[in-house]
Amino acid sequence: PRPFGKLRIGGATVREIALHVLDLMENSVAAGAQRVLVRVVQNRATDQLEIAVEDDGCGLPDTVQDAAHPVFTTKPGKRTGLGLSLFREAAERAGGDLHLCASPWGGTAVRVRMRLLHIDRMPLGDLAATVGAMACTAPEVDFSCEVEVDGKKETVSTQQLRAATGQGPGQNLLVMRQMTNQIRKGLEGLGALP
Predict the structure, then answer these.
(1) Global pTM?
(2) Which of 78, 124, 167, 171 has the smallest count of CB within 10 Å of its CB?
């Protein structure tokens, strides 16, 4: 197995990228987002892995670059906000970086790049279960997941799944299962690296 460092967020050890994505999605929901997009792009030819989480929430303050500093937080009652700084550290260890900016929807976009085959890159983890769980716990939000591997792309969203099946927000577990299965099939079908 590939070696990787142990990171901690709120007392939990973070050993995979999907848990960083979960932290970002939770931040989006806390910021009042109604739409959240998770994008994963793997390109073997350029040895690049890109991860983005974009939302239409309230966005970050003017000091957007300060948000990735360990002592920055917008959550009341908290002294530190380690999630972004730990994700930035993980990206830098794998030859990459983390950027914050406004999303095309007016909220926040967190974009992370790192070398796909770098020995210190954390494994992707169970991205499908992560996005599916968020779809279940925040049914009022439209979650989309876009996976691209070497130019081939698969996209799934809770809005599409509900429209195709006629399921409403009250059927969270069914939507979660469908979302998880669709993302998992997309990752496997495209040959995504773990």
Answers:
(1) 0.84
(2) 78
